[in-house]
Design brief:
Chains A, B, C, D, E, F: GO terms for molecular function: exonuclease activity; nucleic acid binding. Six copies of one chain form a homohexamer. Chain A is α+β, with helices and mostly antiparallel strands. Chain A contains ten helices and seven strands. In chain A, α2 packs antiparallel against α3, α2 packs across α4 and α3 runs parallel beside α5. The interface between A and F is large, with 42 and 42 residues.
Chain lengths: 319, 319, 319, 319, 319, 319
């Protein structure tokens, strides 16, 4: 499996180990049952249909199991789909494990944790520093592996951490040009803004929204956590309130989930930096298989736009 | 002062004690200083301009002081305005005190507190009951006098409590028709939904938004308080989450300040009951000086509508 | 048929008489014709596909006919669907008739008609009373069986009457708390607001919009009817105009079909009461098969929300 | 009075008879009463302030009276305003009467009535013809003098009739290019669409909305009138319904007052023709005093646009 | 082939030459490949599926080829679909050519070009005339055959020219009623407004948006072309700017693609005339197969409305 | 004049040379003429009224003249206003010139021009480089002094250049983190995006929109200029089209003036960078006179928000 499934074009054949992300039974128009499989490796996902299944197949090819598949990539209404020729379950003999198949951040997670720690270490405002460190330590373990979302951007293992580290670098590079910005506030805002996603989402494997995630959401959860941390650490002063405001307002508008708009300079900047990193991640994704001179598929989370790759830009490496 | 200033029509003369709610200095177009006074008694407010003031006047006629005024109500661009003929500060001799001049709820506050207590007492779900009672006790003192808003509806002493009691009665009368409703949840939601207004607003006199009120808002404050109360009382279980959701969603939409829409039956009902009580309060207000057969002033908070009083309805008692 | 089809879960087998609500011919991807059947009993509806049909089947299994079916409930893209094992038409021998299969209001229609009559009887304003009684008598027969809509809420036999009776009770319970409300106006508004649905909709069986329903709509139809009734009864006075306004404005906003917003206190209340009863009916519906701790399907008419049933609430009786 | 007040530029002096359209008392910032006069002649309107008034002045210079004024046009915050030097009431000796001062349509009203009659006469569908003629006769007297609005466009004596006649000509010229259009329907729609403005508005002098106009509106009034006319004339058939739909839908969208959008070809065309004639009337108005190479004042009813007159266009005749 | 495919009803058989507009391979739920064919003749389009295809079929039945088909029109989810019984490619023997199968304007293109030339000839403003003539000559060849769009309205051979000629006639007929309109400007605006569609679209066969069409659009392209033409012809004066503005603003609003709203009387009129001609074309289209007394399919580009054909109107000739 | 007028608080006296930016005559409510002066120095603006003026005053105190004023800053409806005690025109003796009074960028313009030149010099794509250099040279003189807007942000001498240089630095710092970005495109987009503001605006003194600015706008102007420059330089290739697209789309949405949304990665980034620099400039402005612990005035161009300066931030230097 030298080339990941994300890079297979229509017409190419596939001979690979793949993880079944989800497997749903359906009934074909001829009345026969089939399985609709969402297959994944580190590079991406591909759908496949397994026709004419037995009840044994149904019990075998379930979410979380690894299979060996031979087939061909086909076009189905403008989407790539894998036509299965052979499929078999794997055993210990195959020496494969789920972790090898989950897409994850392009950087090492311990390195990234170290980098966040350094930003906290460099803070000058002791209250902001203590609050941020406390909450970072509290959630560090889940933070290290959590995705940042269920779809659209940074929806991979350690996606949240990767997003935060990118935003910290961006904050530093931007703040160097605007001396009025309080970098302690800005870095703390970046580290805390999405931290409660470790509670809003169910974790890196088969990521879903939790019930508290649906009823309360990560923004309100984090506002509460900051309050409780401040009480626990006996920190008083407006820093607590201001950090809560930054988390609360980072989606910028009521209709996007923030009950208050940013009313502090650093809160507005936090929102813009979040936006840049998310959009770059999404645009890189939709464009990475596009041939120069062509338009991408429509990207729903980017206002349904179809992006263009100019003819004078590089083609994707693996095409 | 038998007839309050709310009831004086254009052309009538006024001879009354009034409280100066706000007094702002301005410069007339002839270059002379004047005071723009917002005067109030229990029935309402009236604007007045005090022309040609000395610096002594400026020091005397300040917010919070009670004055004796003789004058006449005039029309100024469609608004009533008091033309001052004589004005003097009051002394101990006048035997008047600010409390007599602040508009307040039409019911006795202790009676209302008692009524809320009874609703809590009748709850069957012990977790909901303990949480609600704990938070009610915690804020009871400020809750008893706080207005529910700075303007539009229930913006008077004990306005918040009056609004809550009306909503409890409404909840009871509506829930009696829809047996699927969980009245413990609904009553608790009503009691808690606006409770953090005691922190969002600065209190009954010269009510303004506090800094935490502007940066965080009563909804997010209360979600945090519920969490902290549950921890303090060692209450676990989904009741805590559900009560937080009810508070969080009671404005119904993101653009109205709720980060989540109501996703529980009782949360949706809480929003509708809040809406009914606020609208009835506002409509009664805009219509109470309107003569049958005429339209009211436009009410900004009621989508800028001008309401009609049918000719076959009663005229206002004091007109 | 002890348990209605609304209550069958995926995987359960079905052996029941069912009414074919609609039957549409389609062509399968193998080129063979099939029938897409919408099946109904008093508890709800279920889709089924009948594969490989003959032209005789096509002529037999038509809208309005009752069939006996054996099969199993399956999941099709998240929706329940009935897989048919055997199907046969019924004859006189089966002793079944269409009325037994149409969902209808949970209360007896004559009792409900009696209740409306009592509300009219109690009115004090003779003009309002005569107008309301006249129009109620005129449409009473269709009013007694008409649904209130083609979908979303109260879309069953006598749904309109059931909705009106619920709203009358709600009006009474709410008005008891707000003494400024004119109950004659409010009750008359409730009784008349949707009355022209008997002309906008085609009746209780296979309910559709009529051509006048699509081109004019029940709101404008009823405004005209009130005018004509007043002329017929020689009633003059503003009551006629005000009742027309209440009907005209009860959808509250232009984009929801009301050319004028409510400009009278009772008109605003009518809109809010209509809203409460419709929403309670819809929420009860989407939640009634949901297991505690789970979220419902998305409800399009409730802003596409998915509602949650708390774990401490009761499970559905039949699950 | 050779040149009307609409054509006086800032800096020019005025010596003319003018009608007081409205006169409102105000209080100046020095505490003295003044009158805010809206003055009019056939060409337009001008505001003026009369300072330092006595109570006798107040009783003399009232709405509907004609005065003789000498003064000068000045600029007040970008608006023209008349600075009064002398003002006196008129008597029989002045030989002036209100009719001479009201702006009115540029065509003779009897000629226009005759033209409408001819369009009706030429209709081929007898039902449409009889209904239209009946309603036209019924309202002819008020129709002949009614304005089409209180402001924005055609807000002058016979403005409604002038608007209808222009639209009839426009209909004829457009329909000659689209043979699928039913001209009987289109002409009838034009004649009836705004007819109930004779009831929605209070007439040509000091035009205001009536109470039924505010609570019901001309669209719903006319739908009712068509129904009643059809009953009176014993006309049956879909023509009645279709004409009602055309009136109902002519504002095109719910938020503009039409409970149904146009669903018939001729209804859509009616809306577009109404739009063209109203916009041309408004644009001609805002541009008629603009010098080539300059932008007009902002026109609120034209989406607040400021229109440009190209340098190669003609200057206004009287500038 | 006496009756075009646009006029075939469900159930009718078809025996005709048809052009394959597009042919896309799909995989049926039984795993077999099929072709999804979009077939066209001068009257319209019809979809068909060709099941069980060989790789030879795939190579034969490609876009742009003409086939002979026997089959039957069926209903597929409310859409007409052709069920193919026999299909064969055509040869020289069949004496058919693609031009015979492309829908095109109902008028002769040379006649229409002549008509446009006459409008230009009659212009009085020499600058406007020279600019318009120059650009018309430059693009005349493509202009003569280009469609006006890829779908919705005037999407046929010479559709752009036909739309422009209709708009010129409309302009003349409307301008005759509003003497303030500058017809030179208006006619030039009509001729130029969509001219750059010859570059935005790929031409009359298999019409698609070009890359410059997607990245820049016809409006901005044309603004540039006018500037360049003026430089080439050494034309100075505000006419150039005003014509650019007319093209720029003809979509009326930012969200519809115009960076400036119409700020000149003739620009507003251009927008309204464009609107009338497009809507009439679309409504005629959706209604031309509708039987009197029925509603059309929903038309997405007409705000998703379903139009009604009154019972007293003519049925379609060929039904 | 050590401390600029931007920094004077209410109550402070002023003794300074100031430039009259605009002077408009008005009529006071006592009928006397006055001048409404907009006064400016390098730090900001202040309004003043000059009462009881003679016609000589009117001729003396005109836009563009420098005056010496003694007075006091007062509060007028929440805005600072200068109360004039003495005012006199200046002569050569005063040794003051307009340039000293116009607010301008905080950096030297030649230095900034040099910096832009360096960015162009470093470009690797020769087509992009030549186009950008050509257009930069063409407009360099006006570019060096033009403001970026008439209000809101960068509305000072050399504001456009200062905005572009800040954005170039921001581009460099951000692009260093996202290697997929084409910096040639991004830098060229930054340099060109607002270049046509030199034609849209009337220049640095008394900045207004020009007629072409209002009718066409800087975006469309620049798209044309790029096309013409490419023709002049005989540059072909997609770079021309892509640069036009970047300029065209940099306002991101139709309702904000861009006929196409960004469809290329660098175009999206250009929009975000423009946004960051404009917002930082605006926020710094509204906050720079705010005392820690207080909220700023509402900023219309920042969604009418009122920004907060935390108590733990620095107070303004000069307060």
């Amino acid at each position: 499996m030298r080339k990941g499934i994300h890079h297979h074009k229509v017409g190419e054949s596939v001979d690979a180990y793949l993880l079944i992300k989800t497997g749903k039974k359906g009934i074909a128009s001829n009345g026969k049952p089939f399985l609709n499989l969402q297959l994944t490796d580190k590079t991406g996902e591909l759908e496949a249909k397994l026709w004419g299944i037995s009840s044994e197949d149904e019990a075998t090819f379930v979410s979380g199991s690894i299979v060996h598949i031979q087939g061909e990539v086909q076009d189905f209404r403008g989407m790539r789909q894998l036509k299965i020729k052979t499929i078999r379950p794997t055993t210990g003999m195959d020496q494969v494990k789920p972790d090898d198949f989950l897409p994850s951040a392009p950087r090492n997670k311990d390195e990234m944790l170290e980098e966040v720690t350094q930003y906290i270490f460099d803070m000058k405002n002791a209250k902001i520093q203590r609050l941020t460190r406390h909450l970072f330590k509290k959630h560090q373990k889940e933070f290290a592996v959590s995705p940042a979302a269920t779809k659209n951007h940074h929806e991979f293992v350690s996606g949240l951490l990767y997003h935060v580290v990118s935003m910290l670098q961006l904050s530093k590079n931007i703040a160097s040009l605007y001396p009025t910005l309080d970098t302690d506030l800005l870095y703390a805002g970046v580290i805390l803004h999405d931290m409660a996603k470790v509670r809003e989402l169910s974790g890196p494997m088969g990521t879903q929204y939790t019930t508290p995630g649906k009823l309360i959401g990560h923004i309100s959860m984090m506002v509460t956590e900051i309050d409780e941390a401040a009480k626990e650490l006996a920190i008083e002063g407006e820093e607590v309130l201001v950090l809560q405001h930054m988390v609360l307002s980072h989606h910028s508008k009521g209709e996007w989930g923030s009950p208050k708009p940013p009313l502090i300079r650093e809160a507005e900047m936090l929102h813009m930096i979040d936006n840049i990193d998310a959009k770059m991640n999404m645009m890189d994704r939709v464009l990475d298989r596009v041939i120069p001179g062509e338009f991408s598929e429509r990207a729903f989370a980017l206002e349904n736009r179809s992006f263009y790759k100019p003819t004078f830009h590089e083609p994707p490496i693996d095409l």
